[in-house]
Specification:
Shape: elongated
Radius of gyration: 32 Å
Largest sheet: none
Order of helices and strands: HHHHHHH
Mean pLDDT: 76
Structural class: mainly alpha
Strand content: under 5%
Number of strands: 0
């Protein structure tokens, strides 16, 4: 059996869930309940009825998990926290839910373009590392090496 997960919820959701709590048996620990207020028999049937009544046919529960993951990541929530909220243990599973869209790609290109344009407008900050280049003691400076080759004398 899975361990019980407790997830914090926003007040808007709590208000909506309280309005339906009159039909729910207080001893029942489940958020979604059957028509009698007890344990829900088949979540898929209840989900289908609820989504069809709301006019959002074809919406899957996993669509909501994916939206929640994407929204949290885009809102700046650290990935580790998103993983904990979603119940995902590995980064690879989170990556399956946090899908990249065309809008994400377009936003990324705009950000890169702004960065490049900003950098192009700046004055270059190129400075030599040292006043004189460091020399390897085994290799003479360029003038001495050239002189040896011209004279044909080697040490």
């Amino acid at each position: 059996m899975r361990p019980t997960r407790r997830t914090p919820t926003e007040s808007e959701f709590l208000g909506a869930s309280r309005s339906t709590s009159s039909a729910r048996k207080l001893a029942c620990p489940h958020v979604f309940t059957g028509r009698d207020g007890g344990r829900l028999g088949d979540f898929r049937k209840a989900w289908k009825r609820a989504r069809d009544a709301a006019g959002i046919r074809g919406l899957l529960v996993h669509d909501l998990r994916r939206s929640a993951a994407r929204n949290a990541v885009r809102a700046g929530v650290p990935e580790q926290v998103v993983m904990e909220l979603g119940g995902w243990r590995t980064r690879s599973v989170l990556a399956r839910y946090n899908v990249t869209s065309e809008r994400d790609l377009a936003d990324a290109l705009k950000r890169v373009s702004r960065y490049v344009n900003k950098r192009a407008a700046e004055k270059p900050k190129v400075r030599p590392l040292r006043a004189e280049p460091a020399q390897n003691p085994h290799n003479p400076p360029a003038d001495e090496a050239g002189a040896e080759k011209r004279t044909g004398v080697s040490a």
